[in-house]
């Protein structure tokens, strides 16, 4: 998702260079480096590989990101169940991931979502407010849409998050540059 080149003289730059040259000890330390960056940035990251240009390729851990969002959402008594939205297999990781939220029957949230499903109004201020309430404190905050089945779909835009991470990482004094790696968007508009 993103490529980071640390300065040559920085501790992280030296580690990446050692890993690039095949030093096994350095290679084993890359997941720890990704964990430190994850903690600093508040987004779960995985070290994918080191390029021949001494760059570290990092990927957003989509599964952990959805798990964290699901844990937060399930705290609300209006939530009955959550599950990741099934995505078609792709060569590259998707640019968007989503969590499907079923609300407890009879709750205000369930009534709102059923009404939206009945009218076909998948986005509204009320649905945005529900999504914000259920995911309060989550980082990043997802967008919310009502599905045709009366569920709330919380969508995380991985492409936008990657761009934000690149901007934040680039500001670090031990980083020469950071850039987006490959991000693909699903064909068409899959919002429910």
Note the main attributes of this structure:
elongated, 6 helices, single chain, four-stranded antiparallel beta sheet, alpha+beta, 192 residues
Could you outline the blueprint of secondary structure elements for this entry?
Blueprint: E1 2-6, H1 11-20, H2 24-41, E2 45-50, E3 56-60, H3 62-73, E4 79-84, E5 96-103, H4 108-119, H5 125-134, E6 143-146, E7 152-157, H6 158-170, E8 175-180
Explain this structure.
With 192 residues, the chain is of the alpha+beta class. The strands form 2 sheets. Strands 2-3-1-8 form a 4-stranded antiparallel β-sheet. Strands 4-5-7-6 form a 4-stranded antiparallel β-sheet. The chain has 6 helices and 8 strands; from the N terminus they run βααββαββααββαβ. The longest helix is centred in the first third of the chain and has 18 residues, at 24-41.
Uncertain segments of ≥5 residues (pLDDT<50)?
none
**Alpha carbon gap, first and last residue:** 24 Å
Strand order of the largest sheet: 2-3-1-8
Largest sheet: 4 strands, antiparallel
| Beta-strand content estimate | 15-25%
Helix content: 25-40%
Number of strands: 8
H/E element string? EHHEEHEEHHEEHE
Discrete helix count = 6
Overall shape: it is: elongated
**Helix-and-strand structural type:** alpha+beta
What does the average pLDDT come to?
91
Computed over alpha carbons, the radius of gyration is: 19 Å
